Amino acid sequence: MTPDDLPVPYALAPILDDLTAEQRRAAMALGHVLVLAGAGTGKTKTLTAGVATRIDADFSHFV
Q1: CA 6, CA 53: separation in Å to the nearest integer?
Q2: How far apart are CA 59 and CA 17, in angstroms?
Q3: SS (HEC) of 15-53
Q4: C-alpha to C-alpha distances, 47 to 1, 8, 9, 53, nearest whole angstrom
Q5: How far apart are CA 10 and CA 44, in angstroms?
Q6: Residue 5 gets which letter from DSSP?
Q7: Separation of alpha carbons 54 and 30, rounded Å
Q8: Distances (CA, A) of 25 to 8, 11
């Protein structure tokens, strides 16, 4: 299964659709995530999408 094949929750589609496949994989990971990337690559967008994903999935204890 590739990151593009991951099921996207309907409520999160507007947030996750703007991410690349690698960003989406990090945002949808359940657990600790380390994002290393250069300036202007979307780190903040990825991490905030990850927080939204955890809240939507009720995994707030991972945050």
Answers
A1: 13
A2: 21
A3: HHCCCCHHHHHHHCCCCCCCCCCCCCCCHHHHHHHHHHH
A4: 22, 16, 17, 10
A5: 22
A6: G
A7: 7
A8: 11, 17
Give the Cα separation of 47 and 53 in Å (integer): 10
The tokens describing 53, both together, are 């994903």
Q: Which amino acid, 54?
A: R
pLDDT value at residue 47: 92
Give pLDDT tens digits along the chain (63 positions): 455 555 666 778 888 888 999 999 999 887 888 999 999 999 999 999 988 888 877 754 555
Neighbours of 50 (CB within 10 A): 24
Q: What is the pTM of this model?
A: 0.72
